[in-house]
Design goal:
Elements (H helix, E strand, L loop, with lengths): L2 H9 L4 E2 L2 H8 L12 E3 L4 H14 L3 E4 L16 E4 L15 E5 L4 H9 L3 E2 L12 H6 L7 H4 L6 E7 L5 E4 L12 H5 L8 E8 L1 E2 L3 E9 L2 H14 L3 E8 H11 L11 E9 L4 H9 L6 E5 L2 H12 L1 H8 L3 E6 L2 H16 L6 E7 L4 E7 L5 H14 L18 H4 L2 H14 L14
Parallel strand pairs: 2-4, 3-4
Antiparallel strand pairs: 1-2, 5-9, 6-10, 7-8, 7-9, 11-13, 11-14, 12-13, 12-16, 15-17, 16-17
Bound molecules: (2R)-2-hydroxypentanedioic acid and zinc ion.
C-alpha cells in the first residue's frame, strides 16, 4: 500500500487532496511571499485521525507541516517541498461554555470569530482579538502565541490557555484539559506547546479562559507629533484608564495608503504625523473617562471620539486595514519586532535610513501595538534584496535589546536571525527539547530552529 492509500484509510478518500488545484490554496501564504509543494493535503476530522496520520507519516519517514487558517505571516505553515500538509480546519468543534469557570473547550480548527460569537452568546468573550479573526484558527493562534490588539488588557494567547490536547511526533496523545487553576505537577507541557510553532506536537483541542464581554465601549483616534509623544502619554493613559483595552499606533504614510485602498474619508481636516487608536471597554460607559484622559494628554494635536458601534468600526478600520492595504500595494517584507519602550522612538526614527541604505527606493510602512513596544515593519519595493533589508532591520532591533519576532513567530522567514534574539545556550536547550520530543524531525522541519 502506498503512503497516500494509508492516509486515505485513516481520514477517508475525500480528505486526502493530491490534485494541484485542490492543494494550491494551502501551499501559498496569505502575503504570496512563501509557497511550496506538499505531497498531499490531509484533512483529519478527529484527534484520533490526527494521531493516525502522524503515525503513518512517522512510519514512512515523511515529514508533516501543520496548518490552521493559513493566516500566518512568517511562512511557518507552508511546506518547503514534499511534506504532508496537515490541515486542521475540520477540527472546529465549540464545546459548551463552562460558566462557573469561564472556560471553554474548542477544536484547534475553529476560527477566532466563531469562538467569539459562541462566547458572546453567554456574555463572555475571548481575551485575544486580531484583524484575521475570520480565518485565523485557535490552534494556530496558540501554536504561534499570537498577540493582537488587546494584549494590553488580557495578554497574549498563552495567557488565555488553561489546557491543551496534542498529538506528539510518535502519534501519542497528551491531554491536559481539566482547566485546573492550580496544578503544580512538573513541567508545563501546555505552555511549552504554546508558541512552539508546530515543531513539538500537533494541537488538536484547547481549553481557554474567557473574559467578561464588555459591551460598553468607547474608541478614540488621537493625533500626535511622533512616536516619542505616543510613548510619553502611555503611563498616564494606563494610570487614568483601568479599562483601557487597546492603544495602537500608525503614521501618516500608512493612513494615506489605507485610505486609498479602502476609500475611507480623512479622520481630521488636516494631516498629522502620528496617530493612536485608543479603546476603553467596561460594564459601564467609559466615554467620559476616556474623553477626560485625552483632554489632558501632553502634546495632543487633535482627537475624535466614537461612541456608537459603526463609527467605532470606522475608526478601527484606519488601523486594521493596514495589512490588507500593504499587501494590495505589493509583496511586502513583513517584520514584527519589539524593543523596550524607551527605545521605540529611536527605532522608528532610525528605520528609514537603515532601510534606504540597502534599497534607496524601498517604502517602509510602520504601525503596531505601542504599549508592548511592538512594531510591524512592512517594507514594500525591496525587489531582490528582501533578505538584506531583513538583516539590516533585525540587527538594528537586536542592537536596541529587542526581539526579532514579537508576535508572528519565527516560522521560516526569520530562522537565520534567531541568534540575534536567543543565545547559543538557549538555542541548544531548544534543540534538546525538539530532539527529545521529535527525534526524527518530522514536525514542521525548517521552521523555528536553524538546521
Ligand atoms: C496586526 O497587528 C497583525 O495587524 C499584522 O499582527 C501585522 O501585517 C502586519 O504586519
Ligand atoms: Zn500585530
Amino acid at each position: 500500500m502506498t503512503l497516500l492509500d494509508e492516509l486515505r484509510g485513516v481520514v477517508g478518500q475525500t480528505h486526502v487532496l493530491v490534485e494541484d488545484d485542490l492543494r494550491r490554496s494551502y501551499e501559498t501564504d496569505w502575503t504570496g511571499r512563501f509557497s511550496g509543494k506538499a505531497l498531499a493535503v490531509v484533512r483529519p476530522g478527529s484527534t484520533e485521525e490526527v494521531a493516525g496520520v502522524v503515525r503513518t507519516c512517522a512510519a514512512a519517514g515523511v515529514p508533516l507541516v501543520v496548518q490552521g487558517g493559513n493566516t500566518g505571516l512568517v511562512g511557518g505553515s507552508i511546506p518547503a517541498g514534499g511534506e504532508v500538509l496537515l490541515s486542521l480546519t475540520r477540527l472546529d468543534g465549540l464545546g459548551e461554555i463552562d460558566e462557573a469557570a469561564s472556560q471553554v473547550t474548542v477544536g484547534a480548527g475553529a476560527t477566532l470569530a466563531a469562538l467569539q460569537a459562541h462566547a458572546r452568546g453567554k456574555d463572555l468573550d475571548v481575551g485575544v482579538d486580531l484583524a484575521a479573526r475570520d480565518s485565523a484558527t485557535i490552534g494556530g493562534l496558540v501554536a504561534t502565541n499570537a498577540g493582537g490588539i488587546r494584549v494590553l488588557r488580557y495578554g497574549s494567547m498563552r495567557a488565555q490557555v488553561v489546557g491543551a490536547e496534542a498529538v506528539l511526533a510518535d502519534g501519542s496523545i497528551v491531554s491536559r484539559m481539566a482547566g485546573l487553576a492550580k496544578d503544580n505537577t512538573g513541567y508545563d507541557l501546555v505552555s511549552l506547546l504554546c508558541g512552539s510553532e508546530g515543531t513539538l506536537g500537533v494541537l488538536t483541542n484547547l481549553r481557554l479562559r474567557l473574559v467578561p464581554r464588555l459591551r460598553a465601549r468607547c474608541v478614540a483616534l488621537v493625533a500626535l507629533e511622533d512616536t516619542a509623544a505616543a510613548v510619553h502619554v502611555l503611563p498616564g493613559l494606563r494610570d487614568r484608564l483601568p479599562e483601557l483595552a487597546a492603544a495602537e499606533l500608525f503614521f501618516a504614510d500608512g493612513l494615506a495608503l489605507v485610505r486609498g485602498y479602502a476609500g475611507l474619508p480623512a479622520p481630521f481636516p488636516q494631516e498629522y504625523p502620528a496617530y493612536l487608536v485608543l479603546e476603553s471597554a467596561g460594564r459601564n460607559d467609559p466615554t467620559d473617562q476616556l474623553v477626560e484622559a485625552i483632554a489632558e494628554l501632553d502634546g495632543l494635536l487633535d482627537a475624535t471620539v466614537a461612541t456608537d458601534a459603526s463609527t467605532q468600526r470606522a475608526l478601527w478600520a484606519y488601523r486594521e486595514q493596514h495589512t490588507e492595504a500593504i499587501s494590495a500595494a505589493g509583496v511586502p517584507v513583513k517584520l514584527d519586532v519589539s524593543v523596550p519602550l524607551r527605545a521605540l522612538a529611536g527605532l522608528v526614527d532610525r528605520l528609514p535610513a537603515v532601510i534606504a541604505a540597502v534599497v534607496p527606493q524601498a517604502r517602509p510602512i510602520v504601525f503596531g501595538h505601542v504599549n508592548e513596544g511592538n512594531l510591524h515593519v512592512n517594507v514594500l519595493g525591496t525587489g531582490e534584496l528582501a533578505e538584506e533589508v531583513t538583516d539590516a532591520v533585525l540587527r538594528l532591533v537586536a542592537e536596541l535589546d529587542g526581539s526579532i519576532s514579537s508576535e508572528h513567530g519565527v516560522g521560516r522567514a526569520k530562522v537565520p536571525w534567531l541568534g540575534l534574539s536567543r543565545s547559543d545556550a538557549e538555542i541548544a536547550a531548544m534543540r534538546a527539547i525538539k530532539r527529545a520530543l521529535d527525534p526524527q524531525g518530522l514536525l514542521n522541519p525548517g521552521v523555528l530552529l536553524p538546521d
